[in-house]
Amino acid sequence: MKLKKGIFMLLTMCALLIAVRLNGPLSAYVSAMKRGDAAVFASAPSVPSPQGKASLREAIQTEAEKKRIAPVDARVDRVWKAIPGYNGLEVDVDKTYRLMLHAPETQPIRFVYREVKPRVNLDDLGRVPIYKGNPNKPMVALMINVAWGNEYIPSMLQTLKNENVKATFFFDGSWLKKNADAAKRIQADGHEISNHAYTHPNMSQLDRNAAYNQIAKTEALLKSTLNVTNRWFAPPSGDYNQMTVDVAAEQGLKTVLWTLDTVDWKHPPAYAIVQKIRARVEPGSLILMHPTDSSSQALEGMIKAIKGKGLMLGTVSDTLSSDRASLVEAGP
């Protein structure tokens, strides 16, 4: 009996000693779990020596120089007019160092990246129309101009929802005034809403005052009906002159056209539209369509063709921004 009691006491003391010795790492692990950093502590953390810290920072800095991607400045192209810039990518040395400071020595460095804005941005180019995004950005936008008809809007919205794609709808003001409910449904689905003039005129044939009012009336309606703060103006039929660009700019809008046209108003078969997009789409493409039978039937195939080429789909604002596409945000 005494022997069993002695063994029990000895085991209890050993357990207490082990618990005391493990308390430091255990506490650190529990704290890391609460912070979501448990992966860093695959084994008990240790504090590197000054020499080890210097070596770690030097290794990070050396790799950072190799991994840097320079930003691309916005520019004016002779054919495509204003081309947006594209953010670069570089290693955040300090954040990477802090992340890896207590990691096991055998763990590969997990780099933390940050974007670097170009020196020249789209806003720096002045009053120049836009036809496409930066070719380094693997993103494409669907531009859906709406001036008449609602018949095919529901099916197109359903396809966009099924494919998890957000498009940019450009509303003619006179259509918006008569179809506020349809416009609100489009907006409720998360799509971007922009300006397509008021009565679908040829903008180049208007005087300055008339051109200004075509944009201003629709802009006011976008605000009062949908509470939209807009950035873009798409001239009807792609018809414009420099005065059009100027009066849009005076109202805080950039004039945007398209890279690829479905020409759906000619009622081509859906397969022909899909073939055209598959053959010609590239990073930065802005694709024009309308709520027509042809485009509604082709839309799913178009989206799959675009995704099949490794391209993302975003709004016009997404595609023309200098922000890096999320597919490459993790770095090289």
Please describe what this structure looks like.
- With about 325 residues, this protein is α/β, with parallel strands linked by helices.
- The termini are far apart.
- It has 11 helices and 12 strands.
- It has helices at about 1-35, 50-65, 95-100, 155-160, 175-180, 180-190, 210-225, 240-250, 270-280, 295-310, 315-320, and strands at about 75, 80-85, 90, 115, 140-145, 170, 190-195, 230-235, 255, 260, 285-290, 310-315.
Looking at CATH, the homologous superfamily of the largest domain is: Glycoside hydrolase/deacetylase
The CATH topology of the largest domain, please? TIM Barrel
Tally of DSSP helical segments: 11
CATH class annotation of the largest domain: Alpha Beta
Strand content: 5-15%
Order of helices and strands: HHEEEHEEHEHHEHEHEEHEHEH
Salient structural properties:
332 residues; alpha/beta; TIM Barrel; 6-stranded parallel beta sheet; two-stranded antiparallel ribbon; 11 helices; 12 strands; disordered C terminus
